[in-house]
Amino acid sequence: MKTGVRVMPIVLSHRPSAACHLSEWSVEPGKREQLVTVLAYLYLQQEQNAERVIRILDTRARSSTARVLPNAIEKLTAPKPADLELSQHGDVEEQQKANDRMRVSVWHRDGHLFQYVSWVVARLTSPTSILTPPHVRQADKGFDGFIIELDKAQKRVLKVVLCEDKASEDPRKLITKSVWKEITSIQEGEREDEVSSALTTLLKAVPDLSDEELEDAVDVIFWEKIRQFRVSVATGEDQRGANDFSHLVAGFEDVALGALESRIGGVLPFDGVRDGLHQLAQDVIARLQQIGLATEGDDV
What we know:
Helices cover 46% and strands 17% of the residues. By secondary structure, the chain is α/β, with parallel strands linked by helices.
């Protein structure tokens, strides 16, 4: 067994952009299985086991309720079987409503799954930082994650990155209509209470950080303006410009003022974003089922 060898199942390739530090993400073909396994453990809410898979360490059997595995599979299943049935055999009104729910359920499943992929990228690129775990529920409001980097003494915040993750067939529209609005509200101080609460909760997990040091760590984020923003999208190859996806983040510098280093962009392209994320979801479901079989008779 190897120990502590961190393997990158997702490769980041830098792309030129005047708006931000932009990278294009790609899944290493020979390491897709590793990524799928990491995602499976994240869906089981076993972040430590996901970390072990990244570092090529043996996973540990975990105790959990009988519903954890089926709940994880349900989150990855879209559209729902009941809606599929109604869309085919219901009356006209039932079919219309079922089709609407099916479309929304796919959007939510894909967005949720991409948040988990984005967490993996954050962990790979910031191995010693504090990360918020991926959202348990789909379509949770607020920023999709935070990355906090502390100094070596684990007493002072060096930077905090607020992350927005989106999966879309029309990412430019979503970014300009939604993401820029979210970032602007932060820049104007409209959501500092929300950000402060989330960061305080994260920092409470830091060992040996006194109440006063915790307060100072949160305060410095606002007064010294060390916030950064990361906008990541999963989309289709049809959204690629002449050379890259830099047009998707055009205007980033206008809503998040500051040095170029304070703005981070990432794009994960698929041949088709819905088909690509659907196949990834199916692969994660299959891995979850394998984990379930391996622990049959025991707790997952």
